[in-house]
Amino acid sequence: MTFYFTGIRSFPKLWKSNSYLGLSSSHSYLSLFLKDCYGIRNQEKCFSVKTMSAQNTKAMNLLIAKARCVRKLDESSNKQVSADSSHMFAAGAAKKRSQMNPSSKDPVLPPVENIIQLPTKPLNSEEWDKLKEEFKEKANFENWIILQMVKCHSSLDVAKSVLAWVAAKNSGIVGYDLLVKYLYLCVFHKQTSEIIDVYEIMKARYKRLESGAYTLLMRGLIYTDRWREALLLLEDLKKVMIPSKKNYDDCIQGALFHQDVNVAWNLYQELLSHDIVPMLETLKAFFDFGKDMKDDQYSNKLHNILLYLRNNQLYPGESFAHSIKTWFESIPGEQWKGQFTTIQQSGQCLGCGKTVESIHLSSEEYEFLKEKIMRDVIDGGDQYKKTTPQELKRFQNFVKYHPPFDVVIDGLNVAKMFPKARESQVLLNVVSHLAKQNLQVLVLGRKHMLTQNSRWRRVEMEKMQKQASFFFADNISEDDPFLLYATLHSGNHCKFITKDLMRDHKACLPDAKTQRLFFKWQQGHQLVIVSKHPGAKITFQHILSYDTVVQTTGDSWHIPYDDDLVERYSYEVPTKWLCLHRKTTKNVNVWNSLTVPLLIWLSGAE
């Protein structure tokens, strides 16, 4: 597409800049979508110090001694909590494992070609012609140079000089792609008047735009007096496609900025109706808007957002967690108090002392999940690509005529823990360790494990078969469906051992509820061996006793959140928590019943 600039204000002219609360300098250009990278840090608390009289010295000494005991207890608890960060599903655990096992090969970087120094000030036509001569692919120079400016966030003056140069060479014609890239720079630099000028040009010349231009225009207009035109652009976009979560986020943020909360909520409900998972920034904006607001209806909607996080296994970042805390504490007359804390291995919150939800499924949840996995993963999955109906039937009969198992082992997965060790010896050590505890053990293996070779010794296989039950599948078969079937068929007490994260099988499940239950069950049943070398004592990572999910008891909320400094993979869960509790009349009476006698005793101790 091309466009004539005849009659449009000249490019060298410095148009007036109107700043707005839109993009920040931390945004980058990749696919015309911009990501907010700001986070709010914990702020220091200031305390006033008052001189104490001599008659209270003894009481103060008692309180200091008590504080020391509490501090030691907290330090001991923190040591216990720190162990949580090492479990398989803890945020950052995968990153640590990758750092402990770095790749032996250095990454190969692509060759760098056609690198030129980007101008830092506007150039005239002669200077651009000279620079183009230095570029080998002359036909692509204009698009290439403006793209480099976008990536480096060059100033608008320099970008305008490119467009003026192109227009002068082409009778006032500037290509559509150049115009969109220039629009990106206008949005990035928050040049409102420039954005509106480009918008007027596009509106006059094109009936339809591509999605990237719609996105940029909506992002540029939402913080201007013409923000409602961004909603019209959203309607235009809906005629050809479902808008992205970013499009909805821009319009919702603009509506809240301009105090039109009804439009914001309507857009949010529309977004959910398309089964689009909203951006966390969108949800955060609703909490920021509700600060200091006494509105039960609005509060209920925010509570529903928290329940949405729970039901979809979503976790706020630090900045969002601070917004949630601020909103709760700002509700007039509610007396909420929040603190950032951690959860002990026992499941007890270090902040309020309450025990959070158990990781173990109820009998109803277990039966529901079992039925879903049997239907969607075992019977309805793609397991027949790696096995046969006859083999699966043979395995089902095998399990049916054996007593329930306590532990199911993915034999090959465990045997390959130590690449340089003999696989049959590694597996024998694990099986023997479990057999000594009088556990009913099932080992899932492949038929080639029965063939004598340097990796698999027959005598060691015979020892294992005396200590555990074995099922040997065909060599091409997939182990995971067998492992899931045997573990679920044995009952809620049964654990399984594998390093496989089961992400493919989780993806086969039909809805968010079932996927969340599967992940909850997996965390409570998957054992991971942490022995560091062959022959070492067999030890397992502890299994979490609590569920890492947003949860409430009515007068308290516990919200796991992401630490900005920790890289969390999708199958990991946060280790940091926001604890919120409301001061009720009952709490105050209990507190008075404890503190008043203590104060009377301290005053009489003198």
Shape: globular
Spatially, the strands of the biggest sheet line up as 6-5-4-7-8
> What Rg, in angstroms, do the CA atoms define?
31 Å
The tally of strands reads: 11
Mean pLDDT: 80
Distance between the termini: 90 Å
Number of helices, counting only DSSP H or I runs of 4 residues or more: 23
**Percent helix range:** 40-55%
User: What can be said about the biggest beta sheet?
Assistant: 5 strands, parallel
Low-pLDDT ranges: 1-85, 588-603
Structural class: alpha/beta
Q: Give the percentage of residues in beta strands.
A: 5-15%
Describe, in plain words, how this protein is organized in 3D.
The chain has 606 residues and is of the alpha/beta class. The chain contains 23 helices and eleven strands. The strands form three sheets. Strands 6-5-4-7-8 form a five-stranded parallel beta sheet, sandwiched between helices. It is globular and about 85 Å long. The N terminus is likely disordered.
